[in-house]
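User: I'll paste a sequence; please echo it back and then give the predicted structure.

Assistant: Echoing your sequence first, then the prediction.
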Amino acid sequence: MAQNIVWNSRVRLFCSLALTALAVAGPATCQTQQAAPTDVANGKSKMRKLYEEDQANRNDPDGDARRRVLVQRLITDGEVSSAEDYYYAAFIFQHGQKP
């Protein structure tokens, strides 16, 4: 019976120490890394600039066509890599004149 009490005390002590260690180390080891942005000189990607231009010029079919060609070229050249850039590309492509 005395051995069970000692054993249970050691198990509780081990569990307490393990949980304390996890609580202390957990936040330090769970830091997220931010993806490297596809930035140009002023902090905006080429796709973001095209997207902003697209949203500002909604009544310009020639501009829409030019931006779609530029986006296709950026994708082909491998300059579009982030999810954010693909989001902007989708918005630009939706302004097509044909399905």
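The longest helix spans residues 2-29. The helical segments are 2-29, 46-56, 61-76, 83-93.
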